[in-house]
Q: What sequence folds into this?
């Protein structure tokens, strides 16, 4: 939780020793930093305000969102520093690396492992939805492992595109093409359901290693998504349980009203029961 509701204006480098870069985005970079007094390591997202230009409202939004949330599977914003040119978001350091990198490194990977990851993501997204927040940019790059240990939890990072729902249903095209829900592409009004679609895309990728909708041509990709046209291709899906396919089918449902909510998805036996198989699918 943000102990300091006020943004701090002192020089961040007096408090933190800024170290190497952990990641980079379009107008920000994330760096490792160490508290000079306590020696505690944190991740600091440094945002150059100038690069934002007219998108500053988006940034204020990211902060407003982060300030409100406290959940085990969502990155914790500890402090905020602001200068005239820069904004620094001090986050709890997560050290386990990105979801897909870690899965690729593992020799053994099962439906049970995938089910556990998706269950944690759904729990966090349900929490956001209950608070009236739509994440809108759920994708594997924004899912990090908390620690290097095998039993590490998953943490959602990056709220750059999330938006308070009660500001009205907006229909700005945003997000990453491969994860965008049909109603977003069709510029219809949309809501929480777009996140559930994205969870469906992530679940699909976790089980076969490639995305359900893909084409080098964006128009063709859009066409596939708008029709919710995907397959469980042989041989990749031959050994995957019917339960897993049923689960994905309810999330990759074109009609947002018929699509599973987080609540419904969490109740599906592939998440809450014992239908997720324990055999290696790597
Ligand atoms: P962007 O808006 O630039 O995509 P992200 O918040 O997604 O920003 O961060 C970019 C990268 O920085 C992530 O993919 C991850 O590798 C790293 N990162 C972000 N937050 C943390 C954190 N709390 N702890 C460790 N690494 C992080
Ligand atoms: Mg990101």
A:
């Amino acid at each position: 939780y943000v102990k300091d509701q006020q943004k701090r204006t002192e020089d961040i480098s007096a408090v933190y020793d800024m170290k190497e870069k952990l990641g980079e985005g379009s107008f920000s970079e994330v760096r490792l930093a160490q508290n000079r007094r306590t020696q505690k390591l944190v991740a600091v997202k440094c945002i150059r305000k100038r690069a934002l230009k007219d998108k500053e409202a988006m940034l204020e939004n990211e902060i407003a969102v982060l300030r409100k949330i406290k959940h085990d599977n969502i990155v914790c914003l500890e402090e905020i520093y602001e200068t005239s040119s820069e904004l620094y978001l001090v986050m709890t350091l997560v050290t386990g690396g990105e979801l897909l990198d870690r899965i690729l490194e593992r020799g053994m990977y099962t439906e049970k492992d995938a089910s556990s990851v998706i269950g944690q993501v759904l729990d966090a997204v349900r929490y956001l939805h209950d608070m009236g927040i739509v994440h809108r940019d759920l994708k594997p790059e924004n899912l990090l492992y908390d620690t290097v240990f095998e039993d590490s939890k998953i943490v959602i990072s990056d709220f750059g595109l999330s938006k308070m729902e009660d500001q009205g249903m907006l229909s700005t095209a945003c997000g990453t093409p491969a994860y965008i829900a049909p109603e977003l592409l069709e510029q219809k009004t949309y809501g929480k359901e777009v996140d559930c679609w994205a969870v469906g895309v992530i679940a699909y990728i976790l089980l076969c290693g490639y995305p359900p909708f893909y084409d080098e041509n964006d128009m063709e990709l859009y066409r596939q998504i708008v029709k919710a046209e995907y397959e469980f291709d042989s041989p990749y899906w031959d050994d995957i349980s019917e339960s897993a396919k049923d689960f994905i089918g309810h999330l990759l449902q074109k009609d947002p009203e018929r699509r599973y909510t987080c609540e419904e998805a969490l109740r599906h036996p592939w998440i809450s029961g014992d239908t997720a198989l324990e055999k290696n699918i790597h």
Remarks:
- The chain has a mean pLDDT of 88.
- The chain is about 35% helix and 20% strand.
- The CA atoms of residues 13 and 103 lie 35 Å apart.
- The beta strands are 16-24, 28-35, 41-48, 77-82, 86-92, 97-98, 133-134, 143-145, 154-156, 163-164.
